[in-house]
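User: My advisor asked me to double-check a structure prediction for Voltage-dependent anion-selective channel before group meeting. I don't want to rely on an old file, so could you generate it fresh from this sequence?
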Amino acid sequence: MTSQWVPIGLEQPGMGHYSMLADGTLGEKIICKNEYGERVDCPTNGNVSENEDFSFPGEEMAPPYYADLGKKANDVFSKGYHFGVFKLDLKTKSESGVEFSSGITSNQESGKVFGSLSSKYAVKDYGLTFTEKWNTDNTLATDITIQDKIAAGLKVTLEGTFAPQTGSKTGKLKTSFANETVAVNTNLDLDMAGPIVDVAAVLKYQGWLAGANTQFDTQKGKFSKNNFAFGYQTNDFALHTNVDNGKNFGGSIYQKVSDKIDCGVSMRWTAGSADTLFGVGAKFALDADASLHAKVNNKSLIGLGYQQKLRPGVTLTLSAAIDGQNFNAGGHKVGVAFELEP
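Assistant: Sure, here is a fresh prediction for Voltage-dependent anion-selective channel from the sequence you gave:
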């Protein structure tokens, strides 16, 4: 939970309470917010943990990166579903601060089993993070990241992959920068034959968002991607529209109806085609540890999910995909996922 301290005279209506000074007089009004920026009831004793984050009047959140535009609506349609797979994820952390993540996924249809293992270690004094990854396709990957040291808000990542069986090697240099007004990120493919340069930027003004994403292939000497997006976002509402390469159109709407209900609407269509994809989805929180998920699109494909925190650090997800147009023909999918973390 984060807290916002607002001096008397600048307080806003809503949840909150005043702090009590040592002499018994009222001090500042404390407005408590959760991780999503939504106002919630403050602790009754008025004390705030020293580990909590603070935001002050006039401080604004940075705009999302281009790839994260429409993320709130996308999460309604993607989180809580694992169709056609059995999945197990495990996260742990050693006493020395090294984070380990491993996962295994079994595809019911193909029978293929995919596994991955990664470790991450942060050197906070230097803003460095080292990540090592391996998967069952026998691909090794290394990421080195430095953040907020070259410049405030700037993150630079050098990525490399190596496949011992084929000798294939790849490299990427990624940068990202964000402040209260703009979020910019670049992706440079380190291919000596001719790198591919990907650049994206998002501008924010009073909740309105405008973004552009372009990709240039230096080997072919032409632009391979020209995308634009426009939207509006608040703590409980998000509108997103996009045009990809002038022919693929999309849009989404997210609305937090209440503390327990999140809803999303998504649309996709292509110029020159009559095929339009339209879907609605919702998440309903039964309590602090359980939630129901449901979605359906105009092709009568229905997704259902149930997520339950069995105990701290242990989460079970059950999901099912139903083809409403061919209900009796079968082909429906179910999925089970376990997530374990400290």
